[in-house]
Amino acid sequence: MAATQGTEVEALDTPCLLLDEARVRANVARMRARLASLGVAFRPHLKTAKSREVARLAMGAPAGPAIVSTLREAEYFCEAGLRDVIYGVGIAPDKLARVARIRASGADLAVILDSSEQAEAVAAHAARSGDRLPVLIEVDADGHRSGVAPEDADALVAIGRRLVAGGADLRGVLLHAGDSYALSDPEALAAAAEAERVAAVTAAGILRADGLPCPVVSVGSTPTARFARNLTGVTEVRAGVFMFGDLFQAGVGAVEPEDIALSVLATVIGHQRAKGWIIVDAGWMALSRDRGTARQGLDQGYGVVCDRDGTPYPDLIVADANQEHGIVALRRGSTAALPDLPIGTRLRILPNHACATGAQHGSYHVLDGAGRVAAVWPRINGW
Amino acid sequence: MAATQGTEVEALDTPCLLLDEARVRANVARMRARLASLGVAFRPHLKTAKSREVARLAMGAPAGPAIVSTLREAEYFCEAGLRDVIYGVGIAPDKLARVARIRASGADLAVILDSSEQAEAVAAHAARSGDRLPVLIEVDADGHRSGVAPEDADALVAIGRRLVAGGADLRGVLLHAGDSYALSDPEALAAAAEAERVAAVTAAGILRADGLPCPVVSVGSTPTARFARNLTGVTEVRAGVFMFGDLFQAGVGAVEPEDIALSVLATVIGHQRAKGWIIVDAGWMALSRDRGTARQGLDQGYGVVCDRDGTPYPDLIVADANQEHGIVALRRGSTAALPDLPIGTRLRILPNHACATGAQHGSYHVLDGAGRVAAVWPRINGW
């Protein structure tokens, strides 16, 4: 059934994605206030939301700034008026034609890179096209993934010089402290944020010492954005998953469980009473295969089971999942009572990972303060 | 770039999904011949493909038979002429109105259930609507998920009688030996297939002994369909993932690695040479979060890395993945040499789980015998 304004959750086809708009607004306001108090700009990451309506809540203005994870996102958001945007995955040379088309539409789309090969391709593109393509050099904050080592002056300067010589617009440096996801101690998280800051400032200093421009010093991850105490030398912070929150970020301590705005609405379709199983129509296709909490102190299975209003049942999780079946059971060792949930009961399941769970769905059913569906917001997937 | 006929793989935007049509045809022909030799009908499961074009390759006729995992699939395929179809997830009473709309369009859509509560709802629906809704009773082959225990005569007869009394069309029994996915020994797989058969025949016998109809005895999973030796008493076998194959099913032994028809095309976007990492633009968003092979003898990470023509590099896997980054590295302990793959190199990645990887994409880029894109076939997601 297509949802219309004021629809009760009971009238929705399941499984589907629910979004608590008030929680998104509160999560964004909290992050915005925190970063303002630290004196840095906020560049929301739109890879979790992939929705123009959510982007409007997250961004300070329709023109941005923002960062995206795919060129499809860049196109989708720029068609809706986004202007200041970074494509936050290392640029492949054969994506430059698509970047140029997006820039030709009026958006100030910047790319990132971490090698001389990419700098050569981007410089050649800038020289050939006459477009002063903006570039940030990706710097490796913590050995997590991509990026030039922050103290590797030879590499940083070679990349920066090649870009400038080719006529590209060297904007600065960009880092992502992805290893912070593996932490949960506030002191360790504050230290990760400080390490990210120091790496950023180090790399920026190397560029500037060579006379290269570096107006932007961009860092960010939801955990380090939450725990940073000092951002001297940083100009902007990026974060995305905090808007919705999820069980994994709650395990890190970067969000509070009661602030999680995203859930999957499911219906009870069966029982295996001898085993203490309740079968629901949300399997891994609706919840995603993400099992990130398996590596944390509290393994949440495929998600925490709540009643239709969002209140968690004690120790009740999606213990296993098939494609379209979720197996709901008490956490191993629990002494709680299995709730009596007859066939047809509507449940909400909190996700392990908002980015992964959201991607399994084509829209958000947006809840108002009374728990009714106030709107349906489309979201995009793909590249 | 939108792909057109004859497009080279180099011209595609990455990441994207590639499908080798000749392998799909061969996989289907092999399964069809195998089941014909065992004297049973074949009901392909369309949950992996979610594509009308693939369904046409898999089905013996446009009208079916087939089985689907969502009502969205039922609608999508029935609009294209599918008539004989089972919705293979236990029916929730509030989905019956949507089932009725699909049936009113001319499709013989059957539902499954495993409880008296569902039988009561279905019988009441049949009595109220006058529609002889076809029903199969789901029977539990192996304790994997849903279903009435095959020897639980009281439950089977109570459900069957209630359905018949209400005017529903009791079609028979349906089982899925999902625990076969955990096996890899051919003898154990043959035993799982035989256990699935015996459970099916036992349950069917109980219904018939009570004078209830049971024309259909439906079993199936890709592993048991591959390893069954005797299907006496079974009328049809269902399987889906075998059409494409994947690394997980190769680990089970249910498909050969060289028959895997699905892969994700990716581009090299960076290196961390000191660590032996090659970074590609296919992360878990493109590959899925499925890590099913982690529980098998050979952990394939997030997928096996092949060259652009589909030939695997020795011991090269996607060792880790972020949302839009794959970290390609040699398998731990490998003595193979890391191949030199410059930025821009196109690679193909074989998936752990075809159902999960396919669901991350909106279409298949279909390869012809020369490795060129012969067509783009859309696929659906959602519910």
UniProtKB/TrEMBL annotation, chains A, B:
Alphabetically ordered keywords of this record: Lyase
D-serine dehydratase-like domain ranges (all copies): 261-368
Alphabetized InterPro entries for the sequence: Ala_racemase_N, D-amino_acid_metab_enzyme, D-ser_dehydrat-like_dom, D-ser_dehydrat-like_sf, PLP-binding_barrel
Molecular function per GO: D-serine ammonia-lyase activity
Keyword Endoplasmic reticulum recorded: no
Alphabetical list of SUPFAM superfamilies matching this protein: PLP-binding barrel
GO BP terms in the entry: D-serine catabolic process
Presence of the UniProt keyword Lyase in the record: yes
Similarity comment: Belongs to the DSD1 family.
The protein's name in its UniProt record: D-threo-3-hydroxyaspartate dehydratase
Gene name as annotated: dthadh
